[in-house]
Write a structure and sequence with these properties.
Distance between the termini: 16 Å
Keywords: Glycoprotein, GPI-anchor, Lipoprotein, Membrane, Signal
Order of helices and strands: HEEEEEEEEEEEEEHEEEEEEEEEEEEE
Strand content: 35-45%
Number of helices: 2
Shape: elongated
Organism: Solanum bulbocastanum
Main location: membrane
Number of domains: 2
CATH architecture of the largest domain: Sandwich
Subcellular location: Cell membrane
CATH topology of the largest domain: Immunoglobulin-like
Number of strands: 26
InterPro entries: COB_C (IPR056900), COBRA_pln (IPR006918)
Structural class: mainly beta
Length: 401
Amino acid sequence: MSMNSYTIVFLLFVLCSGAAAYDALDPNGNITIKWDVISWTPDGYVAVVTMNNFQMYRPITSPGWTLGWTWAKNEVIWSMYGAKATQQGNCSMFRFNLPLSCKRNPAVVDLLPDAPYNHQIANCCKGGVLSSMGKDPSASLSAFQITVGAAGTTNKTVKLPKNFTFIAPGGGYTCGPAIIIRPTRFITPDGRRVTQAMMTWRVVCTYSQFLASPRPTCCVSLSSFHNGSITPCPSCSCGCHSSSNCVTKGVKKPVLQCTEHMCPVNVHWHVKSNYNKYWSVKMTITNFNYQVNYTQWTLVVQHPNLNKATQVSSFLYKPLMPNLSTNDTALFYGRKSYNDVLMQAGPKGNVHSDLTLQKDRKTLALKKGWAFPRRVYFNGNPCVMPSPESYPYLPYSAGTR
């Protein structure tokens, strides 16, 4: 199959599955930004801004998020805790006590973990990295405090910012308008007092893979103990080889390693063994990108027997949709301080895990590709699968080969 054919198949998959706006495996996934005005000042307000990554398996990786907007009037940022504005802008109208930023369309980034303690607030300072909700809800939240001047001083005079943007590695996010909602209620740690924000508005940003990249970003290869051949990633899965988009060993400032598939990431599924009550698989993720370390990476695999996974080495694992009767989709991710970062292309640019599954005798059969996954996602993006007729076949079986 040619590159163009694979591209058409991939685009049809994206559009037909609703991945551009709706993900059946993550129907409520989004980035929700909430502004809570906690006090008024003589010329504006103090607000706490929180960002929640409600996406089950799509993290925000290094170098992290950038949040932007356009002021409705001539607001300025006097100070910030937990984040910083990237540009000061033109503050020439102020003779003394310059604001932190006078940009009409400021861009804000998270502080690094080693930021001074007196510049931090709760849930800040992660370098903009957010875990996916399915992996670690406690690490999927980011927050900062902002003091805004030259703004309204009551909930009737404040004008909401507009044109919100949420930029993350890979792009693909589109933000809706700010909408005023019921003020947030805050409960003290001892649970004995409740306070309320003066005013609250919310912005929801959704992800589209097609906006992020019209081409796929990962592919799947297959092999099995019962067949000596390997089914590679389809040729040109993520584009075709050219001198402008890949490099060979020894070239300075490389971008992407030259391969037949030209994907930044390859997921390999190898059926290791098949016993009376159990069977096992080895999963390997290889990074062919010379410029990216994949922090907080996630791997989602759909297979009918994943509801009976009994042992997983190296990776951490949890069912993605445990409340469904099928429960055939699993979320895998790296162990902290061991393989939670998939390093750049090279000798250390891979992570792997051994997976043991209990047999479901009613459905198990190595024939007809049953042992191979139905769908695979890396960092929330679907990977290109080989065509079923190319799967490793059983010896002496009547295959198309």
